[in-house]
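Help needed: design a sequence for this.
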């Protein structure tokens, strides 16, 4: 139980740090462009678990994570925005103020989770790719 709380506290601190850094610049586009990000349902199995995220056209999202060794998925909701300069999708959570998750846009059907998930503070590489379903 202590390990669980330690992981949660660590993730919150890392999320807060990333959130502060991300808040310094805001070059976001309120609508996704045809050459950039395609809203829809993305899914992937990463080292952090099974990730399913639905990016709605009204800029809301629903994220479901099932961590390894669990059958109980965690769910979060909030808003997303697309940063055209950095080619990143940035999530703002409804109930978790200090968590930030960003996704790099690889191509029109693939995004890559690259920072701030609850269980993984920093990610990169194709192991973290999610594909449009």
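Sure. Designed sequence:
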């Amino acid at each position: 139980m202590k390990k669980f709380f330690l992981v949660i506290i660590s993730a919150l601190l890392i999320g807060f740090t990333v959130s502060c850094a991300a808040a310094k610049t805001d070059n976001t586009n309120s609508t996704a462009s045809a050459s950039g990000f395609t809203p829809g349902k993305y899914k992937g199995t990463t080292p952090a678990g099974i990730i399913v995220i639905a990016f709605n056209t009204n800029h809301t999202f629903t994220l479901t994570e099932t961590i390894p060794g669990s059958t109980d998925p965690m769910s979060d909701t909030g808003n997303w925005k697309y940063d055209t300069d950095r080619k990143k999708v940035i999530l703002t959570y409804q109930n978790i103020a200090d968590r930030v998750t960003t996704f790099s846009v690889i191509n029109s059907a693939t995004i890559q989770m690259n920072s701030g998930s609850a269980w993984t503070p920093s990610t990169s590489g194709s192991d973290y790719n999610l594909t449009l379903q």
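Residues 2-22 form the longest helix (21 residues).
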